[in-house]
Design a protein that fits this description.
This protein is of the alpha/beta class. 37% of the residues lie in helices and 16% in strands. A 7-stranded mixed beta sheet has the order 3-2-1-4-5-7-6, sandwiched between helices. Helix 3 links the parallel strand 1 and strand 2. It is globular, with a radius of gyration of 16 Å. The two termini are 27 Å apart.
């Protein structure tokens, strides 16, 4: 889960700034999923989910290797990466459905607002943000009730192989006592990876981890309306 340069047109792994509202839609989160829950967001990126969900009574930890950087560096990164992601989405707008956001301008505005909330919370509550990376996390078994992971696995299937995906999924399942929810199941240019998904589900099943697919109302990439759920004991 490094952030090396890549020959793909997207370049480095994108650090995204998503809001609680986006997380609710992406992961089909209800209030009962948040209140009083121990939640891991991995990778957390520059999302404002941690601070917003914490305000609702959740106990959230965000994990990402970028958190090894200084707060000042992360504040700058959150803004520059938000612009890079928004520029990418706008330039390839035909790959996306804009009904949830309205239009590219509102998408950019929402992401900037989330980046700002992330930066403020990083200063106020640095203990919520841990520098850690898949496929090896510094948490005990069953440390969290709910684990959320978006826009890493499957998104970067062009540079993260099946072995990495399996190791990462096993690690996320290890630290989750209830559920692990993953979205999307397409890559960053919208290609579906159904064969990879089914291969991984079989490998997980062979190791005693049950999984299901659940449709979501959120769909940004065309056809990206399904999340993978790993169930705890």
């Amino acid at each position: 889960m490094k952030h090396p340069l890549d020959t793909d047109v997207l370049g480095e792994f994108l650090v995204s700034a998503r809001s609680l509202a986006e997380y609710r839609a992406i992961f089909d989160l209800a209030d009962a999923d948040l209140q009083g829950r121990r939640i891991l967001d991995c990778p957390g990126g520059a999302a404002s989910f941690t601070t917003e969900a914490s305000d609702l009574g959740a106990h959230v930890t965000a994990a990402d290797p970028i958190y090894s950087r200084s707060a000042e560096q992360l504040r700058s990164l959150a803004v520059s990466e938000t612009d890079r992601g928004s520029d990418w989405a706008t330039a390839h707008s035909d790959r996306y459905r804009w009904d949830w956001y309205g239009d590219p301008e509102r998408h950019r505005a929402l992401r900037h607002a989330a980046a700002g909330r992330f930066a403020a919370d990083l200063t106020a509550h640095p203990e919520r943000y841990m520098a850690a990376e898949l496929p090896s996390l510094p948490f005990r078994d069953n440390s969290f009730d709910l684990v959320l992971s978006s826009h890493l696995l499957f998104t970067y299937a062009d540079r993260l192989d099946a072995d990495f995906h399996l190791a990462a999924l096993l690690e996320l399942a290890r630290v989750s006592a209830w559920e692990t929810r993953l979205y999307p199941l397409v890559d960053h240019i919208g290609r579906h990876h159904d064969v990879l998904v089914e291969h991984l589900r079989k490998e997980l099943r062979d190791k005693g981890i049950h999984s299901t697919l659940r449709e979501t109302e959120y769909e940004f990439h065309h056809g990206a309306n399904t999340m993978l759920i790993l169930h705890g004991d």
